[in-house]
Amino acid sequence: MRTMLLLLLLLSAGCDSSGSKPAVPATPAADHEQQSLSGSILMLTNRIDLIENGTMQGYADQFMKKYPEASVEFEGLSNYATDIMVRLSTKDAGDVLLLPVNLPARELDYFFEPLSAEMSAGEKFTTFAAYDGRRYGLSTGTTTSGIVYNKKAFKQAGITEIPQTLDEFYAICAKLKQADITPIYMNYGAVWPLREWGNNMVNYMTGNPDYLNNMVHENAPWQLDNEWGRLLGITRTIIARGYAEDELFSNNWEISKTKLAKGEAGMFLSGNWTVRQILDAGAAPEDIGFFPFPYDNGLKHYAPLNPDWFIGVSKFSRNKELSMSWVNFLVHETSYTAEGFLPLDGNTEPSMEQYREFLSYQPELVEATVQTDSFIDMANRAKLSFASGDYIQELIAAPDLQKAFDGLNEKWEEARALSDAK
């Protein structure tokens, strides 16, 4: 996989002198300018499901009613966090795309057009996708993470109560396994879902949303007796006891959704956006539930409150005005931001029963803070892709977790030394 270093080298070779001038934030076209917008734009997205089921094309059709001479095409990336960095390095990132989470804020202007104040008014997560007073992306939803489960599978296994502690969670896994149901589908082979079992959970299970950011002050953040050790201990226990899927090394993301929908699998640990996809895979709404993950035996548990991906316009787009209008339309005039997400307005009651169930267990919600450039730089120097999940896969499979942690700590300490030397 290409690293951020390669990305920056390509940038330094490929940016022209005009790229250093302050960009004027673009504004989407007004209604009276509709007829003047024309051409074709390409949007890159991780929502392959919305492309395949025609939802994205439906939004494009609505857009073309406003702009008859315009068209929008879509390309889905199955491993978006990794693939998009390669595409950006070659300036082949379409016209509209989701902003990479592992891109330092100071580099946003190299790749994205700044948005107008009018376009970004009302943005909830104001510290994300922004730098030096300019905003480069709009949030597409608000997410939390927890256990998505099949109620019929629970009933078949004789499970009558939702687990409130880690021991109770292990107990229902055992019951599901005994009933010949895959207790929890980790999607180990798909890799990216493992982020939930790594940095995503570590960053909220202490109640401190800056846990990852604060790792830049440590030489050896991976320890058996801290959050990393406890969390990896859970994942390794699940696999060791046979509670995860049998086909660990196969990328069965799409298949796994059908298995959960049918009750052949009992649970996922994932974001709330998964609920809609399980329903689209054939589950009846009344058969799917959602509860906070009990990562320890305490009485109180935290759950994250995160922005989903931010969407913006490529610096290299040849039709920036049309692209801006599409972003504005998609976020503000369609149901795209409601496709499996919590309401952007925190005062609004969630529309889906599964979200109301989740909140009924009264988890303490921890609102995310943006990853600092210092953390992203450190991760890049250590060659650790926190956005992809592959290092979590390696930690789960490691014969000796302490030795695997020692290897990560060595890389991290070297990265810190390089940082201090600058």
UniProtKB/TrEMBL annotation:
<keyword id="KW-0732">Signal</keyword>
<keyword id="KW-0472">Membrane</keyword>
<dbReference type="InterPro" id="IPR050490">
    <property type="entry name" value="Bact_solute-bd_prot1"/>
</dbReference>
<keyword id="KW-0564">Palmitate</keyword>
<protein>
    <submittedName>
        <fullName>ABC transporter substrate-binding protein</fullName>
    </submittedName>
</protein>
<keyword id="KW-1003">Cell membrane</keyword>
<keyword id="KW-0449">Lipoprotein</keyword>
<dbReference type="Pfam" id="PF01547">
    <property type="entry name" value="SBP_bac_1"/>
</dbReference>
<dbReference type="InterPro" id="IPR006059">
    <property type="entry name" value="SBP"/>
</dbReference>
